[in-house]
Specification:
Layout lengths: L9 H6 L2 E9 L1 E6 L3 E3 L5 E3 L3 E7 L2 E4 L2 E4 L2 E4 L4 E3 L2 E3 L2 E7 L2 E9 H12 L6 H17 L11 E2 L15 H9 L3 E5 L2 E2 L4 E2 L9 H4 L23 E6 H10 L7 E9 L5 E8 L2 E6 H8 L9 E5 L32 H12 L5 H9 L4 H9 L17 H4 L11 E3 L4 E6 L8 E2 H9 L4 H8 L4 E4 L1
Parallel strand pairs: 1-13, 16-24
Antiparallel strand pairs: 1-12, 2-5, 2-9, 3-4, 3-8, 5-6, 6-7, 8-11, 9-10, 11-12, 14-15, 14-25, 17-23, 18-19, 18-22, 19-20, 21-23
């Protein structure tokens, strides 16, 4: 996941071709390789062994008992290994306060080889890989100096872009980098903000709903094709206590939590704000902030609905089963008659017992009029003939996956000390390019240029 940040002067960044990647900061660092040589901060050159540990002594770098002025530049005509990862370019060793910081300095194009092999599936089509190469290159150049206080430009985590050196090289991603060499995405002459996520869930998010600052080309965009993402559906069960603790950490405590309501949605139906009500009042929090508080691995996106958890209500009778042979028809007619209180409690109990898959649960949330038919289906009983409609219960996959109508009344759930289950789709913040969405486009013949035009409307590809 990549977070929004302020950039340095774009004209200076665009001219930079070398990038400094912070690999680690620790009391010592293991370095190895063939043909290693060093140069210290005073310009003195010296040979190095094939394998050594380096430590800090004050502001000096210590290698095999010898002290050198910081920084020490380790170079080789071959790859250099630090820990368990091999790197192209050179390693810069900086000593400060008893710690050694190891920095990989290399050309941006070589840096991208260690990014794309991790950030996107190298088995995907050429056009989606080329699109990723352009936005990763743009993002890298726009982040020059982001970690300047630590002596480097970018880190190796998803705070910037995940980087794994030459351990993740692939011929397909190398080709994509070579075919787009020097190409970046620009907006009005400056480097664009090329955020991306794994799976948008069917529509991208407006950056202002996630990080609070509007960008003309980072807006809601409904994707034209369904993706085949294995992350397209997810669910997460959250207890009232878990949510209360998260709100308290944010300074948004509402006391004993009793209700959560969807306060706002965007044009595609994605949740953008939630209202939390409790014994001490109510508070509104953006869905992006809520996701961060609970944990992005648990609440995988902000494209979700919710329904209450909890045990089956006591004393609710089981509906009477018909004695005739089981039906074999694949389609069940709709019965939009509202559920009674007892039926509603029974359906909730069946949901709690996981009698329905994620798509069915989400369908019931989005289309409450279908809940009775799902209840009948789970219990194996037939709807009364006088209440039957003619529309089929089973709908095409594209209908199940369609984006919720933003005009629907905001959903809410009463917790009363219990829990809530989120039913969602997609994975990530949703801003900018969706990798699985881009794959679906490439699989249908879209070019890298067309994919980028869709996700970043109004931008242009330039070579720098």
């Amino acid at each position: 996941m990549i977070f929004f940040s302020l950039c340095l002067c774009l004209s200076a960044q665009a001219q930079a071709r070398w990038i400094r990647v912070g690999l680690m900061t620790a009391p010592s660092a293991p370095i190895s390789g063939r043909g290693l040589s060093g140069k210290d901060g005073g310009g003195r050159r010296f040979s190095l062994p094939a394998s050594f540990n380096t430590q800090a002594r004050g502001s000096n770098v210590v290698i095999q008992g010898k002290s050198y002025a910081s920084p020490v530049i380790v170079s080789s005509p071959h790859q250099i290994r630090c820990g368990k990862v091999n790197y192209e370019g050179e390693l810069v060793l900086r000593a400060r306060a008893g710690q050694i910081t190891v920095i990989n300095r290399l050309d941006v194009e070589k840096y991208l080889r260690g990014v794309l092999g991790y950030e996107i599936n190298p088995q995907w089509g050429a056009e989606v890989l080329k699109a990723q190469a352009v936005i990763s290159r743009t993002y890298a150049l726009a982040q020059m100096g982001r970690h300047e206080a630590s002596g480097y430009d970018v880190c190796t985590t998803d705070h910037c872009q995940v980087y794994r050196g030459t351990n993740v090289l692939h011929a397909s991603t190398d080709r994509a980098i070579a075919q787009t060499r020097g190409q970046v995405l620009t907006y009005r002459g400056g480097l664009a903000h090329t955020f991306f996520c794994s799976d948008s869930g069917g529509a991208t998010a407006d950056v202002s709903d996630v990080w609070g600052k509007s960008v003309p080309y980072l807006i809601v965009r409904k994707e034209p094709f369904p993706s085949e993402s294995p992350k397209s559906r997810w669910e997460a069960s959250l207890s009232a206590g878990e949510i209360q603790n998260a709100l308290a950490k944010k300074g948004k405590s509402v006391g004993t939590l009793s209700q959560i309501a969807i306060e706002r949605r965007d044009a595609a139906g994605r949740v953008t704000a939630l209202r939390f009500t409790g014994s001490a009042g109510s508070s509104v929090l953006s869905s992006a902030a809520f996701r961060t508080l609970i944990g992005a691995k648990k609440v995988r996106s902000t494209f979700f609905e919710f329904s209450p958890g909890g045990p089956r209500a006591a004393g609710v009778p089981e509906p009477t089963r018909r004695r005739e042979a089981p039906r074999t028809a694949k389609k069940i007619a709709f019965d939009a008659t509202p559920l009674t209180a007892a039926e509603d409690a029974q359906l909730k109990a069946l949901i709690e017992q996981k009698k329905f898959n994620v798509d069915e649960r989400l369908d019931m949330i989005l289309y409450p009029e279908r809940r009775r038919n799902y209840l009948y289906k789970a219990l194996g009983v037939e709807a009364p003939e006088t209440e039957r409609k003619q529309e089929p219960l089973e709908q095409p996959a594209e209908t199940v996956k369609r984006i919720p109508d933003p005009g629907r009344t905001a959903a809410f759930v009463n917790l009363a000390g219990g829990s809530v289950t989120l039913y969602g789709r997609g994975w990530g913040h949703g801003v900018g390019l969706s990798q699985w969405g881009a794959k679906a486009m490439a699989d249908r013949g879209w070019s890298a240029e067309k994919i980028l035009e869709f996700y970043y409307p109004g931008t242009a590809i330039q070579k720098r």
